[in-house]
Amino acid sequence: MTSPTPPQAPSPALGWLLAVPALLGTLISLVLPTAQTIWLSLQRGGVLRESTYVGFANYGRLLGDGEFWRAAWFTLSLVAMPLLVAVVVAPLLAVALDRAGTWPRRAGRIALSLAIVTFSPVGVAAAWMRGLAPDAPGLAGLAEGLRDPATAPGTLRLIVAAGTFGVVCALAVMAFLPALRAGSVPQGFSGVQGFSGGSRGGVGPAMLVVGVLVAIATVAVGLQTFSFGLVLTRGGPERSTETLAGLEYDSAFRMAEFGPGASVATLAGVILGVLGIVATVVVAASRLSVTLTPRTAPEPAAAVPTSPAAPAGVPTAPAAGPIAPGAGPVAPGAAHAAAPAVAPGAVAGRGAGSVGTAVGIVALVVFLAVALVCAWPWIDGVLASPTSEAGSLRSQVNTWVPAIGGAVVSVGVAYLAALGIGGLRPLGRGSEWLLLVFAPWLFVGTGPLGVANWQNMRNMGLIDSFLALVPPLLVSVPALLVLTLLCKGLAERTDKDFFGGVFLPSLPMAGVLAGAVALVNAQDLLWPLLVAQKPTLYTAPVAQMAQLGSFAAAKPDVGAATPLLVVAVALVAVVAAQLLYLDRLAITTNGSRARTAAA
Predict the structure, then answer these.
(1) Strand (E) positions, 266-346?
(2) Best label site of 18, 84, 221, 537, fewest CB within 10 Å?
(3) Which residues pair with 52 in a beta bridge?
(4) For residue 299, is pLDDT > 50?
């Protein structure tokens, strides 16, 4: 009898072809605007007067008077406390939930999901603005310190730390939990088949690499802080709370001087580019990969005891073990005796004791208590929010339709490239080094490229149009990185064909990332603020900010950017993704080994 023909792997040439849309998208929406930003930084002028070439004069003035360094130092200081949450609090909570067992871990994932889908930088800042009123409620009264130049920097740091505690901790825990499952991924894992033995050494390297990446990402995102500073202080009083993004916005758009604004964007972009390259090198050098653990994981069993009813002289069943190729038929039920099923998402040999469960529950309760206290100004603001134009159907359409459309395009293009680079491996074992082509823009948002992209929109006559509200990035580089690592892990650990072993298992992650990018796009303030001056085109965050600047508004509509219907739909989708898919992810490195299952 002939053996079945193994599935035919697609040609690596298809991998190059699938990467072409991402390369073109990167060239159009990242490389060219970057070059344009650098060119604009060497000029003086802008909208109100003709641009003239001045060489490096903008950089000399910017660095010479300390303006850039002051803004850079303050921006970094805003990141300090969120960074501690991401690299200290989050891994401790992740370990506690991981060791607590299945249901506490999943309960934690659900609670963390709520912190993610309800986060709105402008909404949180608007809630803290209520603290400037004479009858400021509770913790929000801390915002009174924003009035004094001596206390404003420290007050803003505390507000940013409190306002971002829940979302920073939640996102970091989501990254650390799969790393803690590194030991549950067998070498040579194929589909949902069996495990092979190994050591517990895989968790340490995976946690270390994820910790480095989380730290780099937190710093990179913090360097682009814009909404909190603009809404709460507008860089004041006396420029004591100026951030890098605020300095770029003031120079380029308030003062209408593209050259100085572009020079700030260029310097910030260089820092972000270096961070992106370092992160990508860490990923490639550690041979990081992401894969899916089996829905049911078999555990090795002890020897099958002699049946009391067995007649004398009849041999008992041998100890359960691997079945050799070509072995005879197995008695009915023997397979179940040798490999009992484990609940979906459970990890073999890692049963949670009562102490571990108690510690996990206590850790989750403490997190929820701290998160509730930090979020109370926002919760109280939402409960007291009046109905306003900021929460109207028109502003919601302006917010979510471009956000979702931009997410589908940018993540879709990234997914095609990930299938090519991670799934088809056109360069073989070192294919992930191709991500270095995209690495300089791994952490770059709309801010560093805002001057160039605004000029392009104006040249095309799209300013104050609905189409301009679509984010200008054609490829999501963070999604490309994650999906490439997932496709790589799936391709290495499956005996199925490319469609069944890589494409179908990775498709849900593309949907998850598209939803995440849509949430980020919808809560962005900078880009819609630049391209939409007509009130009929205001997104919810822009309408909230306009409302805060209006003398007619008695109270800000804190919940405009997070309406109940949107939060409910997003929460249902995120919880389903957490329980059915994300809870099965495992992150491994080059040194990861399978964790030995207890007998």
Answers:
(1) 289-292
(2) 84
(3) 44
(4) no
Tokens of 420: 């090519």
Cβ neighbours of residue 312 closer than 8 Å, sequence gap 6 or more? none
Question: Tell me: the pLDDT tens digits for 183-230?
Answer: 655 544 444 333 333 333 478 899 999 999 999 999 999 999 999 999
Cα separation, 12 vs 425, whole angstroms: 6
pLDDT tens for residues 346-373? 443 345 578 999 999 999 999 999 999 9
The CB density around residue 22, as the number of other CB atoms within 10 Å, is 26
Neighbour tally for 304: CB within 10 Å? 14
SS3 426: coil
Which pLDDT value is given to residue 185?
53
Give yes or no for a contact between 198 and 593, defined as CB atoms under 8 angstroms apart.
yes
CA distance 270 to 248: 14
Q: Which of 428, 442, 414, 506 is nearest to 23 (CA)?
A: 414
Q: Report the alpha-carbon distance of residue 446 to residue 115 in Å, rounded.
A: 24
Residue 10 has pLDDT above 90, yes or no: no
* Gap between the Cα atoms of 584 and 564, Å rounded: 29
Task: Enter the tokens of residue 239.
Answer: 């420029």
* Whether the Cβ atoms of residue 283 and residue 103 lie closer than 8 Å to each other: no
pLDDT tens per residue, range 508-533: 999 999 999 999 999 999 999 999 99
Euclidean distance between CA atoms 166 and 370, whole angstroms: 9
CA-CA distance, 575 to 573, in Å (whole number)? 6
| H or E segment and range at residue 588 | strand 585-588
CB of 595 within 8 A of CB of 183? yes
pLDDT digits (tens, 9 = 90+) for 101-113: 999 999 999 999 9
Indicate the pTM of the whole model.
0.86
What CA–CA distance (Å, rounded) separates 227 from 117? 17
What pairs with residue 44 in β-bridges?
Answer: 52
pLDDT tens digits along 321-350: 444 444 444 444 443 333 444 444 444 334
Distance, in Å, from the CA atom of 291 to the CA atom of 452, rounded to the nearest integer, reads 38
Instruction: Supply 350's token pair.
Output: 């890692």
Which single residue is written with the structure tokens 């992209």?
A: 453
- Among 528, 531, 483, 530, residue whose Cα is nearest residue 509: 483
Q: Of 483, 509, 512, whose CA–CA distance to 570 is shortest? A: 512
**Cα–Cα distances in Å, from 247 out to 229, 289, 394, 446?**
11, 38, 31, 15
Query: Residue 313 carries which side chain, given as an amino acid letter?
Result: G
Helix (H, G, I), strand (E, B) or coil at 284: helix
Query: Band of the pLDDT at 261, cuts 50, 70, 90?
Result: very high
Q: Measured between alpha carbons, how far is 275 from 281 in angstroms, rounded to an integer? A: 10
Integer CA distances (angstroms), 569 to 375, 405, 563, 582, in order: 21, 17, 10, 18
**What separation in angstroms does the CA of 83 have from each of 71, 80, 204, 221?**
18, 5, 20, 11
